[in-house]
Amino acid sequence: MTSVEYQLLLIIFNHDNIAISLAQYINPEWITTNSLEAKLLLRILNEIREGLWQKALAAETLFERDEELNMIYSILSEELVTEDPLKIANGCLKKLFTNFIDHKKQEIDHKIGTTSDEEKIRKLQQEKINLRKISQNPPFLPKLS
Fold first, then answer.
1. What is the C-alpha separation between 108 and 127, in angstroms, rounded?
2. Are 26 and 94 in contact (CB under 8 A)?
3. Over the stretch 32-63, which tens digit does the pLDDT of each residue have?
4. Is 62:46 a contact under the CB 8 Å cutoff?
5. Cα gap 124→111, rounded to integer Å
6. Within a 10 A sphere around the Cβ of 1, how many other Cβ atoms?
7. Overall average pLDDT of the 23-39 stretch
8. How much is the pTM?
9. Cβ(138)–Cβ(98) under 8 Å?
């Protein structure tokens, strides 16, 4: 099983038009950089947002460490076989967003459990309600023309 970040990297390297949309829709806060794939994804999305992304030169210019290069070469050698890459991209986008929301809820629950300040608890509960509302409408990429 591959991570959502790895799947997004596959999509980015195989579908330029979807890559640009992903860079516009993914909030960098949603990516927890606890894996090599996540770090590479964040770096590539930033390059795309800044208009500096050159897929053909990525391995030579953007990555220096052997493990980064090995990951990129692995992705480049893998073909994304699907009839609907946009559907896969949207599934990954939703998963990334949901993971972020779930993590934020856990942080709030922890803060609620460690405080006795009633006003602070009320504010934290309101934050959690807001997160629940936001989670009802996950982002999705529109059909490309």
1. 8
2. no
3. 888 999 999 999 999 999 988 877 776 677 77
4. no
5. 8
6. 3
7. 92
8. 0.86
9. yes
